[in-house]
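Example record for the data management plan.
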Amino acid sequence: MHRRPGCWEINVKNFKVAVALLSFLAGSAFLVSAASPPKLLAWDAVHKEIVCKPGAKSAQFAFSVTNVSPKDVIILRTPTTCGCTVAKLPEEPWVLPPGGSGQIKVTVDLTDKMGTVKKGVFVIISNAPTEMLSVQAAMSVIIPPPTGMSTQDRARNIQLAKANARAIFQGSCADCHVAPSQGRMGGDLYITMCAICHDAGERQASAVPNLRHLKKPVDFNFWKNTIANGVTNSLMPGFAKANGGPLTEAEIQSLAEYLNKTIPPSASVESARQ
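Corresponding structural encoding:
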């Protein structure tokens, strides 16, 4: 059989290139496999949020999970990021056969807590990476009406504030909007100064927004600027001393930090998209 000169050498070179390419692809596949282990569990969600009623002592969550692998999955235990949070398995250890499903129930103790509470749950699986779940409970705070204030008094005060937003810093209005907040910071300052308007429940004026559902992105700078300078053509005056309000720079800073912590920016951005 006649063979052209140099053909063997060319084939050898091609063979070596092919071997090198296959080796590279095999190595790449190994790296992808090592970085992305096969999926074992499918969750209805890995993060859940609820808004609790005022005075709630605990928050309850349930995560539904299904074994989507061809083998048994054994969940050994579910420790949490805080002692106030308990994640309960149907049994421990919990064996999920292929296609099997069930729920992990999570309870967060809300005693002595306010604002937004976030906790995590570690799902420790036999012979597989640990998975992570998270929960968030936002607690509504409804402030009772001021003692001795009738519905008519409140309506009159709202009209005064519409004419001059700074009216809440003067006269009898200051007894509710300013005096109780003296010497307070952060969450305590919010409850005594801000919640009387923004968390008044059924008594909340229609012109007063729910801060947890603003149709715009919010962050620390947004809260700080709004508290200090107010909102034009609204019932919200500037609370900074420089604007005739009662709050110092440090008090405004503490309020902005509290709101930025309890009302996550991502939640407000999502509201703005709806």
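Summary line stored alongside the record: Residues 17 and 23 are 10 Å apart (CA to CA).
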